[in-house]
Amino acid sequence: MIDEMRVLAVDDDPALLRVIERVLTNQGHEVHCAATGTEALNAARSQRFEMAVIDYEIPAPNGIEVLVALRQLQPGCVTVLASGALDVPAVSGAINRGDVSRVLAKPYHAETLIDTLRDAVFARRRIAQEYQVACSEEWQVKRQALEQCFQERLLQLALQPIKRARSGELFGYEALLRSRHPSLKSPLEVIATAERHSLIHFLGGEVIRLAAERLATIPDHVRLFINVHPEELADPPSLVARMGLLADQAKRVCLEITEQCQILDVKAWDESKGLLTDMGFSLAVDDVGAGYNSLAVLAHIRPSFLKIDMSLIRHIDQQPTKRRLVELLCQFGRASDALVIAEGIETDAEASVIEEIGADLLQGYLFGKPTV
Ligand code: G
Ligand code: MN
Question: Which ligand is the nearest neighbour of the Cα of 226?
Answer without folding.
Answer: 2
